[in-house]
Specification:
The complex is a heterodimer of chains A (541) and B (126).
Chain A (H helix, E strand, L loop, with lengths): L12 H5 L40 H9 L3 H8 L3 H9 L3 E5 L8 H7 L5 E5 L9 H10 L5 E5 L6 H10 L5 E5 L5 H10 L5 E5 L24 E5 L8 H6 L5 E5 L6 H10 L5 E5 L5 H7 L7 E5 L6 H10 L5 E5 L8 H10 L5 E5 L5 H10 L5 E5 L6 H10 L5 E5 L5 H9 L6 E5 L6 H10 L4 E5 L5 H6 L16 H8 L2 H7 L9 H10 L6 H10 L2
Parallel strand pairs in A: 1-2, 2-3, 3-4, 4-5, 5-6, 6-7, 7-8, 8-9, 9-10, 10-11, 11-12, 12-13, 13-14, 14-15
Helix pairs in contact in A: 2-4, 3-4, 5-6, 6-7, 7-8, 10-11, 11-12, 12-13, 13-14, 14-15, 15-16, 16-17, 21-22
Chain B lengths: L3 H8 L8 H7 L2 H8 L3 H14 L2 H13 L3 H15 L4 H8 L9 H10 L9
Helix pairs in contact in B: 2-5, 4-6, 5-6
The chains are: A alpha/beta (541), B mainly alpha (126).
Chain lengths: 541, 126
């Protein structure tokens, strides 16, 4: 709408509002207050001020801003002084580049944005980040902070975290990734923030190795903590007392943390039985750990990803005691330690199962039938990288899974013929996704679409998948033959030098196992292609 | 329950907050809402129509009316419509859309832009 410059002249009102009306050159009007005559076709109440937006109370304007994204809000704030003020005061969520250059701007930034409750401070790995002084200043200005996200703020030390925590005692959620403070700083947060509900820690470099590591305890947050997530920690075991002491913990997620977790899970589940959701990925955990977890009889969600020490036996013992299991994800890493036996046990014990994702696991008709028959609420099923899932297995699913709404098949020996079964089976089916199944062609997908119109069919034959395989797990997974994971692999994580481990196993934040990627895509109910998947996934977690 | 204010409005003759014209648009809304609540596409179409036929001033009047009548759904709807109208638009466009004038000091706007440009990232998801 490039008409006159904004400050010099005000355009006629008529031409602003209707794009089909001819746009005349701006006439030099004196001020908006005197402009009245054009509004014939709209009701004017008292022929007064035509600038109605000024009549809107501040709260209404703020309400409009709420529907806008950050960029739009920024533009609105530049409209006029009133908008600048209201936008700033109604902004509760802020995301800042936390480079060291931010420091001199903190005063004015937080005078303008004086109601921030959710703050993200993100630096990149090449630039120096803000230091303690900056964080303390921010904490003085944002006393009501409820959420803080820190990324690569390597300038922050234990002292800074402590000072911050003392100012922001109402903190509910802390997420820090690639920071370098240590146990002291972590403990300071836990001591001061007694309402802390969610703690997520990834790659905390300041936690020293070995026995000298200061244990991290729940502090004042022992009853408030509901979610703990630990990723890529060399010395994650020092968080043991924290987990064990969080008596109301509902969600525990452990990804790629070194050390033996069986013992720790045993001690955790002796004290904490309230867990509802557990994710274990690339951990040294075995059936002993699974048995420990089975103490949590309210468990509803379990993810076992690339934990080859977990076998059918462990899954069986878990299913016998965790009968409320709703969502189960297993990435067996093609190790064949978990298969029909474990799945049949789950089907018999966990009648509430709604969602099942199997990657690198080889179920046969035996377990699929049992699941279909016994889990009457099974709504979402995903099978990936299974050598045993072919057309007969699809037919079995089609015939027996009455409640199934969403089905995803990836890298399985399914062909167009298998699709035929889906045309008439699975009466509740709403969406089916087929990915990298070489024997499934566009024709087959089209045929299915035409023969079952209410069904959304998504076929992805993987042209965009190039980055996918290589990005995951240091190129171990190629959708076909994977390196056979020996038990030595997890311990390698602990033994290897930092650089080597970082390069191979603990890849950067944008890489995950491709299984996680599309699984997230599936479960979010979107039809995502690989690139969007990665983008989506790198934003979550 | 929703319309206690409406009753009050009709009782109170000296009411300057809501014109007749606006009232005729706002009050039938709940029925319209109920009818098209389930269907998002229809809502979008209705929104588009509203945008085309109603000038910004009227939209803001509608917001005021909905606010006064304590009618949350209408308020949500109108505010969202306004937001959609100014989404991804330049500062100039937004000013003209509402007939506003910049009251910043010369150079202040630029200074604000520069000061905060690099400090912002995109929307921060939870």
């Amino acid at each position: 709408m490039g008409q006159s410059t904004s400050t010099a002249a005000i355009s006629s009102r008529r031409e602003i509002n209707h794009s089909h009306r001819p746009k005349s050159k701006s006439t030099a009007l004196i001020c908006p207050m005197q402009h009245l005559e054009d509004n014939d076709d709209c009701e004017i109440i008292d022929g007064g001020d035509p600038d109605y937006i000024s009549e809107l109370p501040d709260e209404c304007l703020a309400y409009i801003f709420q529907s806008l994204n950050s960029g739009d809000r920024k533009r609105c704030s530049l409209v006029c002084n009133r908008w600048l003020r209201i936008e700033g005061q109604s902004r509760h969520r802020l995301s800042l580049n936390a480079q060291s250059e931010l420091f001199p701007l903190i005063d004015s930034l937080f005078s303008r944005f004086d109601s921030v409750t959710k703050l993200a401070l993100k630096c990149d790995r090449r630039s120096p980040s803000i230091c303690d002084e900056a964080l303390v200043l921010i904490s003085c200005k944002c006393r009501n902070l409820t959420r803080l996200k820190l990324r690569a703020c390597r300038g922050l030390t234990d002292a800074g975290m402590e000072a911050f925590a003392k100012n922001c005692k109402g903190l509910k959620k802390l997420s820090c990734g690639s920071c370098t403070f240590g146990a002291k700083g972590m403990n300071a947060v836990l001591e001061n923030c007694s309402s802390l509900e969610e703690l997520s820690v990834k790659r905390l470099r300041g936690i020293t190795d070995g026995a000298a590591a200061e244990p991290i305890g729940p502090g004042a947050a022992a009853s408030s903590l509901k979610t703990i997530c630990l990723k890529e920690l060399y010395n994650g075991q020092c968080f043991g007392p924290l987990i064990t002491g969080s008596k109301n913990l509902k969600t525990l997620k452990l990804y790629r943390c070194s050390g033996d977790w069986d013992k720790l899970l045993q001690s955790v589940t002796e004290h904490v039985t309230s867990l509802i959701e557990i994710h274990l990925e690339r951990l040294q955990v075995s059936d002993v750990g699974l048995l420990a977890i089975s103490n949590c009889s309210d468990l509803e969600i379990l993810h076992l990803v690339k934990t080859p020490e977990c076998t059918n036996i462990g899954l069986l013992s878990l299913s016998e005691r965790c009968k409320h299991l709703r969502k189960l994800h297993i990435d067996g890493w093609k190790a064949n330690r978990i298969g029909d036996d474990g799945l049949i046990a789950v089907s018999k014990n966990c009648g509430n199962l709604q969602e099942l994702v199997l990657i690198g696991v080889n179920p046969t008709k035996q377990s699929l039938e049992s699941l279909a028959t016994n889990c009457k609420n099974l709504e979402r099923l995903a099978l990936c990288g299974s050598d045993t899932v072919g057309d007969p297995e699809i037919s079995c699913i089609a015939a027996k899974c009455i409640a199934l709404k969403k089905l995803c098949i990836k890298s399985c020996p399914v062909s167009n013929q298998g699709l035929e079964a889906l045309a008439n089976g699975c009466p509740s089916l709403v969406k089916v996704k087929l990915k990298k199944c070489r024997a499934v062609t566009l024709e087959g997908a089209e045929w299915l679409k035409n023969n079952r119109e209410s069904l959304a069919v998504n076929l992805d034959n993987g042209e965009t998948e190039q980055q996918d395989a290589s990005a995951s797990d240091g190129a171990q997974e190629n959708g076909g033959v994977a390196e056979f994971p020996t038990p030595a692999v997890p311990s390698q994580m602990a033994a290897a030098a930092a650089a080597a481990v970082a390069a191979s196993n603990m890849a950067g934040s944008t890489s995950r196992s491709s299984s996680m990627k599309w699984r997230l895509g599936l479960l979010s109910g979107r039809n995502l292609v690989a690139c969007t998947l990665r983008r989506y996934m790198s934003k979550t977690l | 329950m929703k319309f206690c204010t409406v009753k009050q409005y009709f009782d109170d003759e000296n009411n300057n907050n809501v014109t007749n014209g606006i009232a005729t648009t706002v009050i039938p809304l709940p029925n319209k809402h109920l009818k098209i609540k389930a269907n998002n596409k229809e809502m979008e179409q209705y929104e588009q129509e509203l945008l085309r036929n109603v000038m910004p001033q009227e939209l803001t009047k509608l917001i005021l009316a909905a606010n006064y009548l304590n009618f949350k759904e209408a308020l949500d709807f109108f505010c969202r419509t306004v937001a959609n109208a100014i989404q991804n638009k330049s500062v100039d466009y937004v000013r003209k859309f509402f007939g506003l004038e910049s009251d910043f000091e010369p150079g202040e706007e630029e200074k604000l832009c520069k000061e905060f440009a690099w400090s912002f990232e995109g929307v921060d998801e939870d």
